[in-house]
Amino acid sequence: MPWFPLNQYIWDFWFTWQDSTLHLFYLQASPSQCHYNPERRHNQAVLGHSQLTPWGWQTIPHPQPAFSPGKPGTWDDLAIWSGSIIQQDQKYYLFYTGRRRQDAPQWTAHEWQRPQHIGLATSEDLRHWQRFPHNPILANPGTAAGLDGVAWRDPYVIQGEDQRYYAFICTRSQSAPLDRGGMVVYCVSDHLEQWDNQPHILIESPEFYQMEVPQVFWHKNGHFKRLYLIFSAQAKDCSAQRYEADPSQCVTGTYYHVSEPVSLDCQEFPPFTTKAKVLISGLYAGKFVQPKGENSALFYGFHWSEIGGHFGNGLSDPLWFQFQPDGTVSISTSGFGISNNLLEFFV
């Protein structure tokens, strides 16, 4: 069964480890503060925090939410949006999306949105967070960078094989047609607290209006490796061209891009030369746990909608996916029924 925290709407999420314990951070909003309308959750979002135990996910008690918007008048005083956590030495670095209440919404190709920026907070125990004094650490570069000046969110931060740090960010091209131009770009850092704010394009898509909550990793197979980009999109985000080519590949859910194989010592990001494939329909913001080293990995997503078409809420059961030699990723039926003994797969 999926997991639902008590009396909360939950959606986008990410993982981090504390020694051998897997922690889960996620966007949450109180149904009462949303007047029991989940569509209002985006401006009420704070962070929730749970950890995996032998009895399933257990919410970590905090005096307040795990992380909340900033004080009135600050750059992140409206709501906290998606991010990721990376550990360096004994410190955890939380990169997150924020918006300022006093910023006027701007019209994008599909909707009104406030400009988004990316901030940093640090912790030594995953429970007490201190905002970085020079936030936003990755400010929205705006239209001068060829972007739409609004979308700049969902940072997914990893350490590359060259030991530098990479923040992959969801954004959108300024000049793209209305049904395409979704982008994932990246910025680079040597030590996490100072970034080159010049975005480098990982992909500008001719197939999607937006490519949300990215996860990027290398997967090795023998003497070669491939780069994977996991992202989410709604059916309405797919371009007319993609619908014409294959409507079955236009769903609300999680997708992936995969590169051609490259040598193990390659450190540059290879291009994605084929169309994105549906990884799974109906589960959004999907993430793999430890996808790098094995031919199979566990996957989670949140339920986009229930049978009546309303907001689904809740984290899915873990699903096994298999990485095939040709680069495709497929669900594995042999992995079903493992949730009662999930911890044994992480030790």
Description of the molecule:
The chain has one helix and 24 strands. Strands 15, 16, 17, 18 and 19 form a five-stranded antiparallel beta sheet that branches. Residues 336-341 have low confidence and may be disordered. The chain is globular. The two termini are 23 Å apart. It has a single domain (86-346), classed as Glycosyl hydrolase domain, family 43 (Tachylectin-2, Chain A, 5 Propeller), CATH 2.115.10. The longest helix is centred in the C-terminal third of the chain and has 6 residues, at 240-245. It has 347 residues and is mainly beta. It is 2% helix and 47% strand. It has one helix at residues 240-245; strands spanning 9-18, 21-29, 46-53, 56-59, 80-88, 91-98, 106-107, 112-113, 117-123, 130-131, 147-159, 165-173, 182-189, 195-204, 212-221, 224-233, 253-258, 262-263, 277-281, 283-289, 296-305, 311-315, 319-323, 329-331.
Spans of at least 5 consecutive residues whose pLDDT stays below 50 are 336-341
Largest sheet: 5 strands, antiparallel
The average pLDDT value, as a whole number, equals 92
* CA(first)-CA(last) distance: 23 Å
Helix and strand string, N-terminal first?
EEEEEEEEEEEEEEEEHEEEEEEEE
Rounded Rg: 19 Å
Overall domain count: 1
Total of helices: 1
How many β-strand stretches? 24
* Assigned CATH class: Mainly Beta
Just name the CATH architecture: 5 Propeller
Overall geometry comes to: globular
In CATH terms, the superfamily is Glycosyl hydrolase domain, family 43
